[in-house]
Design brief:
Blueprint (H helix, E strand, L loop, with lengths): L3 E6 L6 H10 L1 H9 L2 E6 L5 H5 L7 E4 L16 H6 L4 E4 L2 H7 L3 H13 L3 E6 L3 H5 L3 H12 L5 H4 L3 E4 L13 H19 L1 H6 L2 E3 L8 H5 L6 E4 L6 H11 L1
Helix pairs in contact: 2-13, 6-8, 8-10
Length: about 250
């Protein structure tokens, strides 16, 4: 049975001191999640990673929001896998819609990063999702299928099973809108069918698929009631300890 996963994406929020304060406040809530069989984590900015990692409950996953696939070199402004590993980070979010929109990140580029992370025994969280125009035109499944096929290209079954997928419809990220639990489940279920076609049913059943898009303490339990949705990738509602605790309680 797939374990539930709650992952907070802090985006470009919190200074190191603010991140440390959150980390110190999160100890008991992380224990609560773990006691109920839920994996829980946060993804701070690069400059906050050490502040969180060194002060948060060690049972909490601490993820980076991006990484460069190259070992080292003339890549100004980039962060390498070795840099993350040295400070104890072994999870990375890839392909978030904001990275795709503002930084030109493609599914093919994410594929190279996924392969590099897996080669270093790290966990990629690969994001996919469609725009409102694509959704309104009824092209969501074709769009997401291409993202999955490109992101997972060339992976073995063993490698694919180690990737976490996050379905985030762009029109529901930070807009206050959210896909209904039925819409989210339909697309997440389709993603699992695509993965089954690529890697077989047994592997597809192992891969955790999260939903993200205006998830809040008030609605997280509805998404968790869906059989194919294994957790949530949460933005704004993950920034404050009280709200984060509410998300955990909603997943119990």
């Amino acid at each position: 049975m797939r374990k539930k996963l709650l992952l907070g994406n802090w985006k470009m929020n919190k200074t190191p001191s603010e991140a440390k304060a959150f980390a110190l406040a999160a100890g008991e809530m992380v224990d609560l999640a773990v006691e109920h069989g839920i994996d829980v984590g946060v993804a701070p900015t690069f400059v906050c990673l050490e502040a969180v990692k060194s002060n948060i409950n060690p049972k909490c996953i601490v993820a980076a929001q991006n990484v460069n696939e190259h070992e080292k070199g003339a890549y100004t402004g980039e962060i390498s896998i070795a840099m993350l590993k040295e400070i104890g980070i072994d999870w990375v979010i890839l392909g978030h819609s904001e990275r795709r929109e503002y930084n030109g990140e493609t599914s093919v580029a994410c594929n190279a990063k996924i392969k590099a992370l897996l080669a270093n025994d790290m966990t990629p969280v690969y994001c996919c999702g469609e725009s409102e125009k694509t959704f309104d035109e009824g092209k969501t499944k074709d769009f997401v299928r291409h993202q999955i096929e490109e992101g997972f290209a060339g992976l073995s079954q063993e490698e694919a099973a180690k990737v976490v997928v996050a379905y985030e419809p762009i029109w529901a990220i930070g807009t206050g809108k959210s896909a209904s639990k039925e819409i989210a489940e339909d697309t997440v279920g389709y993603i699992r069918l695509v993965l089954e076609g690529l890697f077989g049913g047994a592997i597809a059943e192992q891969i955790r698929i999260l939903y993200g898009g205006s998830v809040k303490p008030e609605n997280v339990s509805a998404y968790m009631s869906m059989p194919d949705i294994d957790g949530a990738l949460v933005g704004g509602a993950s920034l404050e300890p009280d709200s984060f605790l509410g998300l955990i309680k909603g997943m119990l």
